[in-house]
Amino acid sequence: QMVLSEKVNQLMEWASKRSVIRMNGDKFRRLVKAPPRNYSVIVMFTALQPHRQCVVCKQADEEYQILANSWRYSSAFTNKIFFAMVDFDEGSDVFQMLNMNSAPTFINFPAKGKPKRGDTYELQVRGFAAEQLARWVADRTDVNIRVIRPPNYAGPLMLGLLLAVVGGLVYLRGSNLDFLYNKTGWAFAALCFVLAMTSGQMWNHIRGPPYAHKNPHTGQVSYIHGSSQAQFVAETHIVLLFS
User: Fold this and answer.
1) Is the pTM of the predicted complex or chain greater than 0.90?
2) pLDDT of res. 220
3) What is the pLDDT of residue 243?
4) Which phi and psi (to 5°) does residue 64 adopt?
5) What is the residue extent of each domain of the chain?
6) At what angle do helices 233-242 and 183-199 cross, to 10 degrees?
7) Are the beta carbons of 44 and 145 closer than 8 angstroms?
8) Residue 220 belongs to what H/E stretch?
9) Which is it for strands 81-87 and 105-109: parallel, antiparallel or unpaired?
């Protein structure tokens, strides 16, 4: 009981300072793997260092931080569950211990027993949105987390700017609004929108891929992604040009 109490107090102290507890091999073995334990630990295995060039890791980390913050600052916060992270460059021995060769990966280490098949999050199937992660956490731990996202004013600001521009044009050309009935202008705008969407510009906005990839060993630059499930920004520009 004394050992368990010390472990819980240590995790609570760290969680009070940072919603996602960063762990190396020693901390992981002592607080996650070794018994006794009456708490669950959700661990994100990732590779966030710039030289790893893991764009998905950064995006998943942002959603993971939102989920952990939602739990940490919730009125229902308890020591029943903790959120942690093991970066490859800080805990490569943990990756080897678990025979893990990909990142990001989310695993729930339950309060009792070893992780089962369902305790590994299906990232490719469910995505890494905080809301999806919260549903998975509720299924594995019975802890329901209400995701609270920080306010984003970019959308309303851009909409207001667009309305201001349109309103300014209407005001300046109040006596001559024939340009609103110009079919060629509307057709050109619609064509640009269609080409932008079909070439993958929305993918760029959502996933934030790099413009191209430079092999650090050979120096060769690739403009076309090797996987059919991903693409570079340069690739979408090539498709746009062909279209």
Assistant:
1) no
2) 83
3) 86
4) -65, -40
5) 4-141, 178-242
6) 140
7) no
8) none
9) unpaired
Given the candidates 3.90.1150.10, 3.40.640.10, 3.40.50.920, 3.40.30.10, the CATH classification of the domain at 4-141 is 3.40.30.10
CA distance 133 to 144: 11
50-to-101, 206, 211, 214, 233 alpha-carbon distances in Å: 18, 20, 15, 13, 18
Asked if residues 240 and 202 have their Cβ atoms less than 8 Å apart, the reply is no
For the chain, the maximum distance between any two Cα atoms, rounded to a whole number of angstroms, is 83
Backbone Cα Rg of the chain: 24
Mean pLDDT of residues grouped by 10 in the chain (243 residues)?
86 91 93 90 93 88 92 89 94 91 91 89 85 93 87 77 82 68 87 87 75 76 81 87 88
Question: Which strand ranges, in their side-by-side order, compose the sheet holding 105-109?
Answer: 20-22, 81-87, 40-46, 105-109
What gap in Å lies between CA 232 and CA 226, rounded to an integer?
A: 10
d(CA 224, CA 107): 32
Give 228's contacts (C-beta < 8 A, 6+ positions apart): none
